[in-house]
Amino acid sequence: MSLRHALLATLTAQPMTGYELIKYFDGSIAYVWSAPHSQIYPELRRMERDGLIDADVVPRGDRAQKRVYSINDAGRAELRRWSGELIPYQSERDAYRLKAAHFEQSSYDAARRQLHEHIGHYARALQGWQHMLDDLDARRVSLLRERLSRRPEAEHEAIVAFRKFAFEGEVAKAQMEIDWARKGLALLDDLEQRGVPLAGDDNP
What is the pTM for the complete model shown? Predict the structure, then answer.
């Protein structure tokens, strides 16, 4: 998936300004596809140049103007093309597994700090994803309500179910990462209790 496809998917709900896209992006899509705000406006201009979205310039206050972006037929066709193709899997580059694989070069304290940080990060993420699932169930996501209002009622079940399916995958992944880090802490306790030395604990 690219930022382009994430933005196209968001615009299927309703036309938006760049500011509105960033707000909705941060509140939903960023949970599964993060992107700096500095990348969004240039990508919108490229999408407009490539004929995938239209932009209407409308007043903003007395003197200013703003651009309101909407997906067009070419953008919908591109989104359908992307949705129908297989996404190739990328080679793994996992800094946390790499570091864990060489904890013997560290100290027990440093290794524990890394694993506690890992647990904290994914515990926060888990809370956010579970909150998003609750909001989906309660239809508290404003963009979801807007999307449902524009689609036939017969499609509503699938729209909600697929979004829940995606976030349930993130919940499962976060829980797995927490469990993995806790297993690592138990391993460190066992090794230390048995007097197994680590290079980082050597005194010069």
Answer: 0.79
